[in-house]
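Case study.
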Amino acid sequence: KAGVTQTPRYLIKTRGQQVTLSCSPISGHRSVSWYQQTPGQGLQFLFEYFSETQRNKGNFPGRFSGRQFSNSRSEMNVSTLELGDSALYLCASSLRTSGGRNEQFFGPGTRLTVL
Amino acid sequence: GESVGLHLPTLSVQEGDNSIINCAYSNSASDYFIWYKQESGKGPQFIIDIRSNMDKRQGQRVTVLLNKTVKHLSLQIAATQPGDSAVYFCADLYSGAGSYQLTFGKGTKLSVIP
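After joint prediction, the assembly is written out as follows.
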């Protein structure tokens, strides 16, 4: 069974640009969550999508957005990039069944560098 | 807001010794508490979790202890090996009211001395 895949793995952008990152969850998983990881702030929750709907959102500005497609693949977009957006962006998928543990499986991440 | 934090940023242990990594959490409503291991260049990998109504759970070479009275979580690794060198994160999972969110601690870097 293939794991969570994220593309691209590395990305370099300049301030003011926008970027779109992609995540393909494990087959059968309908929940996709996104996290930002930086040395200073650690792992911070961005948002979660389930059945094409955003179910929960972390404390990030509106420049950060996402969506989920009918095949559960998800994209996140960051507009008007700032230097502080440089981070490892991680995607995690899970089954999200009610009452279960719902282990989240993480992808390898996309390393975004903003110059 | 609610958060999960770690007491120590780094931990060095001799190969073969036991390791104990600690974590404090603040969200009493969390359903599960989870430990993740992250190696360089990889995403976090699930190690073990514990449901909020339990106080101890054992896995292969790992044990998680939960003390709800003081809101403390610990990960014990028996007979630590060089392959255990990584950053360890605790996280709490809250899945109430339609929400489903992991809140992570800052992480503890475990270095195993051969």
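Observations recorded in class. Chain A is about 0% helix and 50% strand. The interface with chain B takes residues 4, 31, 33, 35, 42-45, 48, 50, 55-56, 58-59, 90, 92, 94, 96, 101-109 of chain A (CB under 8 Å). We will return to this complex in the next lecture.
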